[in-house]
Structure prediction request, 360 residues.
Amino acid sequence: MTHDFLVIGGGIAGISAGARLSELGSVLLLEAEPALAYHASGRSAALYEAQYGHAVTVALNLASRADHESLDGGVLSPRGLMLLAGVGEEEIFARDVAKMGLPTVSIEEAVALVPALNPEAITGAAAHHDAWDIDTDRLIQHFARTIRANGGTVQTGASVTQIAKQAGGWQVWTSDGDHTARTLVNAAGAWADGVAALAGIAPLGITPYRRSVARIPAPGGHEVSRWPMLLGAGETWYAKPDAGQLIVSPAEEDPVTEPHDAWPEDMRLAEGIARYQRFVTEEVTRLTSSWAGLRSFSPDRALVLGPEPADPSFVWVAGQGGYGFQTAPAASRLVADLVAGRKPELDAATVAALSPARFR
Prediction:
């Protein structure tokens, strides 16, 4: 059987693109791991903050909101965001406040929202309620159900070993067989350039960066479920409530030479805890768990969405960075529009800024 679309990658990028494309024809989605959303998507901080990211990322965020509020009954729940500055960070804090449009709050107001904060360490605070947790599993499963409901197939444990262009389409070999499709969709995350190389397409320079996360007990026994996400000025650390505890990250971006199943480095975790520790009154004495993920960026740090200029039957859905979940509804809709030859809902300048043609 020749499929209309073969999607490589079962993270949020691939599963959302596959769902939109399944409205246009038959879809086969291949994921190398035994479960969907195993790598970056399964290790996301899962926050919808519309003003977070590159300018074109913000455009995708805004265009995704209605879907986040409605798909499967809505996948957002209240969280809020608080930006904090310490001594020497005032200028960076002011830039972040202006860029994200955050209203400043007094130190007293900040401590009232998050009682574990140390007022003596804070020189500036800003906060708003318009930031939301994303139910990532619900969104993934919604898109997977859509593919299946439209007659498509989602196959896990299918590692791609070889790709060849043939008359009328593509042949893709996996660990358990081969498949053919008219259009190949590259949503392989950190492996996107490797998939392109297998297909004989010039890589774009997609670079994976490691980010480490630790989970710690709720400080001082506080009930943290209603706390906002805490973000250090310049995004030098963050902390976010998670299952009655906090996840804390140094928000590092360490480039890796080869994509892999990432793991955290103890020194990086210690840096993140120290940056967080500076702003709170309770000492961190233990971690309950830790992990790392790879956030993949294009050279200009914007997503890459659309057909490859050298061969439009090869479609890029790559370079999500840390913005895959919050951009997925609009990004996948744009990909389907471009493949179908429809006029995109996004403006022409944004579409061009996301196109792989900008690198060719």
Notes: Residues 324-340 form the longest helix (17 residues). The CA atoms of residues 178 and 353 lie 35 Å apart. The chain is about 30% helix and 30% strand. The chain has two domains: 2-63+135-206+299-359, 81-128+208-297.
